[in-house]
Specification:
Helix content is 47%, strand content 14%. By secondary structure, it is of the alpha/beta class. The chain starts with 6 loop residues before the first strand and ends with a helix. It binds NADP nicotinamide-adenine-dinucleotide phosphate (NAP).
């Protein structure tokens, strides 16, 4: 996929990695970028069309889908990250509502458009989909579920020509990880790496130094081989 003349939708586009993805897609010459946000957004570039889009709100998802005529790339980026210890089911519900069902709902709503263009989906998952962090187990569960959703959609949508990517993003310097005093990648570098990987057709994307250190072993590992073997059944 080259971005020139393409139409892109990014959820959670007002800050962090989502904002950086909008800027990077503009830099690459995207024709139109739909910026999904919960609060009103004003953007200086005329190619950016704001969309009111709380990904947990089915009415807003439907209304947003009605405003988009054509779509080449959907980036499910919106996410929540809260500390918990699994003692309160509400924390799990909240993470699943945004990180899993939000991704699912937005994808289903825009699938007819993506099928028409034989487009692509990127789900900004997390390295915590592969190994949970005990400080944020509910988040980790929701990202593992979102990764599994990504893998199933990849197998199911291949016959329709829709590519489905997972960004297995590691620590990135945004509001989300404000409290973590660890090395972090810049959101700009992560956005660049995600769009490069879409261009290169990498289905699992490792967009920062920490995730990149796992890329080869993931791609050559038993779990990936099993994913491919299982996906062949859908074909
Ligand atoms: N930062 C990291 O280290 C890291 C690592 C791995 C994966 N990720 C993933 O990358 C994605 C972006 O994270 P970030 O680091 O950029 O975090 P961030 O700066 O906290 O931004 C989160 C974004 O998600 C939006 N959002 C939250 N709930 C939403 C909802 N119900 N509907 C629509 N938008 C909603 C927020 O909008 P509001 O401004 O309205 O709250 C905001 O735009 C997330 O999916 C996150 O899990 C981040």
């Amino acid at each position: 996929m080259t971005f020139a003349d393409n139409t892109v939708l990014v959820t959670g586009a007002n800050r962090g990695i989502g904002q950086a993805l909008v800027t990077e897609a503009l830099r690459r010459g995207a024709k139109r970028i739909y910026a999904g946000t919960r609060q009103p957004l004003a953007h200086p570039d005329g190619r950016v069309t704001p969309l009111t889009l709380d990904v947990t709100n089915p009415g807003q998802i439907q209304a947003a889908a009605g405003q988009v005529e054509s779509l080449d790339l959907l980036i499910n980026n919106a996410g929540v990250f809260l500390y918990d210890d699994l003692s309160d089911r509400a924390a799990l519900d909240r993470h699943l509502a945004v990180n899993l069902f939000g991704t699912y709902g937005v994808t289903q709503a825009f699938l007819p458009l993506l099928t028409r263009t034989r487009g692509a989906i990127v789900n900004n998952v997390s390295l915590m989909a592969l190994a949970p962090l005990p400080l944020t187990p509910a988040y980790s569960i929701s990202k593992a579920a979102a990764f599994s959703l990504t893998q199933s959609l990849r197998a199911l949508l291949a016959s329709r020509g829709v590519r489905v990517h997972a960004a297995l993003t590691g620590p990135t310097d945004t509001d989300m990880l404000r409290d973590f005093d660890i090395p972090k990648a810049s959101p700009e570098s992560v956005a660049r790496a995600i769009l490069d990987a879409v261009d290169n057709g990498e289905e699992d994307i490792f967009p920062d130094p920490m995730s990149r250190s796992l890329a080869d072993s993931w791609r050559g590992g038993a779990a990936k081989a099993l994913e491919r073997q299982n996906a062949a059944l859908a074909a």
